[in-house]
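Priority: medium. Attachment 1 of 2:
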């Protein structure tokens, strides 16, 4: 064990590209590390599966993962998989480097480290130019199979003058490229000028498209791809360079996700190659699946096992995940696809890309957020097995798009992210009707059961006769079909964007139709920019409910229980939200008490819907709400003065994250109520509150006046944070320019501490004093509190 741990510590010296500095926090990194690692050190006898669950919780914390490498060999091997699973994305998301040059050098060292894992290949050494001599020379352990002559004469690090390099040659203790399972290195070529200084110096834009760079990138991408393709799960493929990926199709048994970027350089040949890649991979997957299933069946027959045992083996063969590295055993099918990368935002045309989607046999996840032209013909997306659909939120669909028809056919859809047009206010009308049908069948079944128990067969016959007189046999069949469907069927994640009236109308229908399945609800609304209302353009949109048959009665769906969409909290405005169009001035979003959100745990509202188009009192119908984020920007309308009181009075006590961005009038009284009402709060984010710009500093002698209902003080904020024992992160977003401008206007007042640019002035800014006071609170806690006071311009 000690020997393995020592080897793990040595190998971490080569993992320097990943950040080893802590994120911005008032507490010291040693305390943060010891508070989490000390239990792991004590529980080294835990099975690796248990430790993996613990470490996976920190998969996004680069500092913690890097520190776990130093604990012991078990933690090292578990953490290194998460660090190098997708290292380029981790470096891009890491914000600990204050200077761009530091982040750039990390990427250079990362490419050098991964490239060192393939330098034992002769063709790689022959095609690569000499590397920077200041970098150490590392060799993959597989290179020991080579002869000394090959090692000494053919080396990518050899000097041009024939002399031996200054740095000694060392062996890698870990093959880091083996853990690179999610290939996404679109910015790989950015590191080439520093990594290969012998290349011709050109302008970066010209050199990026030069023949030398293209060939060099081709070599490195092919080396990464063919090093251990059996472990690759996802691939990011430039559509203009498909050939190097076509040769690896038979050796990608675990590939489930593929991303095609650089679509701006598309042509018909590239699209045909992408289609060939998708079809060939699925063809190999089906062939190997059948071969693997046949081997299991033959083994069952040879062992003379019973029919029950053979059935179990067949089921295991169908449900078993791909854990075997051999592509001859089993191959996974492509289930996730993304079209477009970060550089393809301006691409509007290329409707031909839909052919790649249609070539997939079982697409479950479709991500089109980087392709603007995807909204032009959404009906081209296959919906038979579609479970997740993500599209751009800043580009609404065309007004003539039959979105309701599309969603009605997508029976397996679980997550939807889309921007809707003013004609799509009733896109979930079909879900509301299905809910009413289920409720009606439930009532009929209940009446039938009660009649059988009481023996009143005559009343049952009269009820059945009356029902058959009002509902046709076709509708009864549809009622039974709705009842037989799985209760878990329905949207779980919904994210909508568009004009306020349209989105609010769609949200009101969604919380009715998916009240028992919806878990995350996100909405971004803005003011109407046209005078066109739903009544003016409803005729151009085909109704999705036409597929349910003409016998569905809109007016008498559920008349006996009056479930027409009205809300008892405020009956104005929602009565027409699910049964017909309504004017934009009368609509607001509200959770209904007759359909409580039993599974909803996240609500994110932005824009007008978070300001005045939401009934905050209806939050009491979300008993399991854990995350609430309200952002009024870019809406310039200030919320009412009593909105915070309504939120705190109706919010669930199990809330763990609260975010209020915008002109929310938050006072000491509200902070004190947050501390009392939300004892489980872990994250608190407040930005651009007007009371920030009149905040008073901490007095020398505590006055205990942290109950003010008119303003905010440092003492009140410190007191509230001290009461929140579970708080882990506090973020305050302040426009410092506006803050100092406000102080200058009130320069006559002595209650403000002025910020001075003179070096001999020892006075501190009020926010610096506040940060120091919160730092003392953090030091007294077992798990430190992360405090960030950030400059956030309002304009």
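Attachment 2 of 2:
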């Amino acid at each position: 064990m000690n020997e393995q741990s020592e080897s793990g510590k040595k190998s971490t010296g080569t993992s320097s590209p990943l950040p080893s500095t802590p994120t911005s926090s008032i507490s010291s990194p040693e305390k943060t590390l010891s508070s989490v690692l000390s239990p792991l050190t004590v529980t080294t006898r835990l099975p690796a599966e248990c430790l993996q669950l613990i470490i996976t919780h920190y998969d996004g914390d680069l500092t913690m993962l890097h520190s776990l490498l130093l604990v012991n060999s078990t933690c090292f091997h578990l953490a290194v998989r998460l660090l190098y699973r997708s290292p380029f994305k981790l470096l891009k998301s890491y914000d600990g480097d204050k200077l761009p040059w530091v982040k750039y050098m990390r990427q250079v060292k990362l490419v050098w480290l991964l490239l060192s894992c393939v330098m034992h290949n002769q063709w790689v050494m022959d095609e690569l130019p000499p590397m920077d001599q200041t970098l150490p020379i590392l060799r993959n352990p597989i290179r020991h199979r080579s002869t000394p002559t090959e090692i000494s004469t053919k080396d990518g690090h050899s000097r041009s003058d024939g002399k031996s390099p200054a740095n000694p040659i060392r062996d890698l203790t870990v093959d880091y490229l083996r853990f690179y399972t999610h290939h996404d290195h679109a910015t790989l070529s950015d590191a080439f000028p520093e990594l290969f200084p012998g290349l011709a110096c050109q302008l970066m834009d010209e050199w990026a498209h030069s023949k030398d760079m293209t060939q060099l990138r081709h070599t490195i991408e092919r080396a990464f791809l063919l090093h251990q393709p059996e472990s690759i799960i996802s691939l990011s493929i430039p559509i203009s360079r498909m050939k190097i990926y076509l040769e690896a199709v038979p050796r990608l048994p675990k590939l489930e996700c593929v991303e095609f970027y650089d679509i701006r350089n598309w042509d018909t040949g590239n699209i045909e190659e992408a289609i060939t890649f998708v079809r060939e991979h699925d063809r190999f997957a089906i062939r190997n699946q059948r071969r693997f299933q046949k081997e299991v069946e033959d083994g069952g027959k040879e062992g003379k096992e019973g029919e029950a045992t053979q059935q179990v083996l067949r089921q295991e063969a169908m449900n078993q995940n791909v854990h075997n590295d051999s592509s001859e055993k089993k191959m996974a099918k492509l289930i996730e696809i993304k079209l477009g990368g970060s550089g393809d935002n301006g691409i509007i045309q290329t409707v031909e890309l839909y052919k790649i989607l249609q070539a997939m046999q079982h697409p479950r996840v479709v991500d089109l957020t980087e392709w603007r032209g995807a909204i032009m013909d959404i009906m081209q997306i296959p919906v038979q097995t579609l479970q997740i659909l993500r599209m751009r939120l800043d580009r609404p669909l065309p007004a003539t798009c039959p979105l309701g028809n599309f969603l009605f056919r997508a029976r397996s859809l679980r997550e939807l992210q889309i921007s809707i047009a003013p004609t799509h206010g009733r896109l979930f009308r079909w879900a509301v009707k299905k809910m009413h049908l289920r409720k009606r069948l439930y009532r009929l079944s209940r009446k039938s059961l009660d009649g059988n128990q009481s023996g009143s067969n005559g009343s049952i016959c009269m009820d059945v006769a009356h029902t058959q007189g009002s509902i046709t046999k076709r509708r009864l069949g549809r009622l039974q079909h709705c009842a037989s469907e799985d209760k878990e069927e329905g949207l779980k994640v919904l994210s909508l964007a568009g004009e306020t009236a349209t989105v609010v109308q769609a949200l009101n229908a969604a919380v009715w139709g998916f009240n028992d399945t919806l878990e995350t609800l996100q909405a971004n609304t803005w003011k109407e920019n046209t005078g066109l209302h739903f009544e003016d353009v409803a005729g151009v949109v085909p109704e999705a409910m036409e597929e349910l048959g003409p016998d569905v009665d809109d007016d008498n769906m559920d008349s006996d229980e009056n479930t027409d969409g009205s809300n008892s909290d405020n009956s104005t405005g929602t009565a027409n939200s699910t049964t017909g169009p309504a004017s934009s001035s009368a609509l607001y979003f509200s959770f209904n008490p007759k359909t409580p959100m039993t599974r909803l745990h996240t609500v994110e509202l932005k824009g007008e819907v978070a300001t005045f188009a939401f009934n905050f009192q209806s939050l009491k119908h979300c008993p399991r709400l854990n995350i609430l984020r309200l952002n009024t920007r870019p809406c310039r309308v200030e919320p009412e003065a009593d909105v915070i009181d309504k939120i705190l009075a109706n919010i669930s006590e199990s809330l763990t994250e609260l975010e209020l961005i915008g002109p929310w009038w938050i006072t000491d009284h509200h902070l004190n109520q947050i501390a009392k009402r939300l004892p489980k709060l872990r994250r608190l984010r407040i930005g651009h509150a007007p009371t920030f710009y009149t905040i008073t500093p901490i007095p020398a002698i505590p006055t205990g006046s942290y109950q003010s209902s008119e303003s905010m003080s440092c003492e009140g904020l410190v007191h509230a944070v001290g009461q929140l024992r579970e708080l882990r992160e506090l973020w305050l977003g302040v426009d410092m320019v506006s803050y100092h401008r406000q102080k200058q206007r009130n320069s006559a007042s002595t209650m403000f501490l002025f910020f001075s640019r003179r070096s001999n002035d020892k006075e501190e800014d009020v926010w610096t004093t506040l940060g120091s006071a919160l730092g003392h609170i953090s030091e007294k806690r077992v798990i430190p509190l992360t405090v960030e006071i950030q400059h956030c311009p309002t304009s």
